From TrEMBL:
<dbReference type="Pfam" id="PF13279">
    <property type="entry name" value="4HBT_2"/>
</dbReference>
<protein>
    <submittedName>
        <fullName>Acyl-CoA thioester hydrolase</fullName>
    </submittedName>
</protein>
<dbReference type="InterPro" id="IPR029069">
    <property type="entry name" value="HotDog_dom_sf"/>
</dbReference>
<dbReference type="GO" id="GO:0047617">
    <property type="term" value="F:fatty acyl-CoA hydrolase activity"/>
</dbReference>
<keyword id="KW-0378">Hydrolase</keyword>
<dbReference type="InterPro" id="IPR050563">
    <property type="entry name" value="4-hydroxybenzoyl-CoA_TE"/>
</dbReference>
Amino acid sequence: MPDVFRVRVGVRTYELDAQGHVNGAVYLQYGEHARWECLQAAGITQAKLHARGVAPVRIEETVRYHHELRAGDEVDVSCTFVWGEGKAFRVQQDVRRADGTLVAEVANVGGVLDLATRRLVQDPAEHFRSLASAPHLLGL
């Protein structure tokens, strides 16, 4: 099995809710941060995408919580792209403490938007593959 891309994120105090743990919406931000870091590690920048007239978009996203996070915690957020046929792809992500404890799972369905037509492109994997210098990080 190939290595899974991971990025470390530190929990900041302003990300906490009234109970003192990470606000649920922040997990979505952690997931998006990890996806962009993975794309950049693969050689795909926002500038390259815009030069081609495309941009990645979220279609659906869910979080499944397992444990609380509090200020000062550090977590590793994974990023595993799952390709199929059609206009959408999936990104499976987990949020784990350094000791491996699963804190949350983020499930993302995304696509690549043609910025001129405002429609999803037919083969998002090919768009990413053609721009990537390290496509293996994207499962390509």
